[in-house]
Amino acid sequence: MPNAADKGPLPEVPSHVPAELVEWFDFKSDEGFHADPHHRLEELRRKRTVFFTPFSRGLTGLGTWVFTRGKDLRAILQDPETFASSGIRPFGKAIGDTWSLIPIDVDPPMHAKYRQILNPLFSPASIKPLEEAIAGRASELTAPLRESSGCEFMESFARPFPVSIFLELFGLPIAEMWHLVELNKQIIGGAPDRQVVAIKTLRDYLRGELASRRAAPRNDIISQIIRASVDGRSFNDDELMGLSFTLFLAGLDTVTSTLSYVFRYLAEHPIQQGRLREDQELVPHAVEELLRSFNVITTGRRATRDVDFGGVHIKEGDNIALPVSLISRDPEEFADPDTVDFDRSPNRHAAFGNGIHRCLGSHLARRELLAAVREWTTHMPPYVLSPSSAPRSSGASVVSLNELRLSWSKQ
Amino acid sequence: MRFRVKENACVGHARCATVAPEVYVLDDDGYLRMQPTVVPAGLEQSALRGARACPERAIVLEDHDSAPSEGR
Predict the structure, then answer these.
(1) Residues 54 to 83 of A: which have CB under 8 A from any B CB?
(2) What b/e sequence results for A212-228 when a residue is b if at least 16 CB atoms lie within 10 Å of its CB, and e otherwise?
(3) Is the pLDDT at A60 greater than 90, yes or no?
């Protein structure tokens, strides 16, 4: 048991959870997790195939089962009937609203109807035309850095870059960028009271944009969603809010946090970085392998019935946490999972999840990561981690480095 | 060699079509919804690489004279 002296009363262990399966692992504050999230998860895997942590991970306030074997995690994600996704991300509820995140917080059969509309908008073919704009935004962000000899990468690039792409999708002016960067920061990592304020501020902002697109449709993705119909009707206000909010939330911090680990790796591995500088053809393989090596998400599911799974008895309503890193680094499936190998093949990692909730924005995210790595291996000089910099992570459902100081010799 | 897509198993990762575009062709949703298809001669290695790239193990390759494999 952890020392409870400075954390208030410990959460209760539900009566159906055997004491020997309890592990007091707190995603939100575990020291080892925030020193090195990927290796801390490996450590837990070596200890147990499954455990229950009484600590809540998000807005539900409930403890959660955690499975650690890749095949168990994948089986849960591939079984949405038994393991539902709805009701565990109550962002709307947190501010007294009735909308929920669409499509991640929706179950079958409604889920498929939403995805049917969204999938073609985010397919590889639909994202491809954005390539140039994405590369352009990456280049705009590095332009001022070329005059200097270093930067704090999170603030200079990793946070604003995906926000700038979101603005592109929503057809919004780039001037909104820093306002939205700040809001995103508060929603993901802010104290609970500031989080609520930020959720409300974002909701009001999106509501205004939705109203103006409805009055005067354009060619952006949000206008296309407004024009679409589901079950023979238009989306209602709650659905449009849930969709827009999800596009904001899902597409920003995930890319930011992935960029943080990708760029730390490249900064600390000059030979690998150099290989990319010499051979841009290698970049897509490198991005794929870096995606595999640095999964940032722990997603969640909720049992829809009592079920025996993976050696434990799960009760209806129990939460399940799924750190997808444990799929992508499973030694049963990947040789030398801890080694970053740009030539790894096959490489069927789970950075974007498994099953019907596969990250809708995965093809967009890949393009963003590709553009970022390309930009920094073509237009920027070789960069290293600044001396005396020891990056740490934070976050529970999405982990990210807090800061990443890079330096380079001015050209 | 023939490939088929397990029912409801494709969720649109699109890795097969990235790795082996000459074998796997996605629909407008970005999903692989092809009927069981004979792999054109000479493209067997591509078909295998594409199947092995699938995070869902959705593609089954079948030889005429051996048991089905899931691109393992």
Answers:
(1) 78
(2) ebeeeeeebbbbbbbeb
(3) no
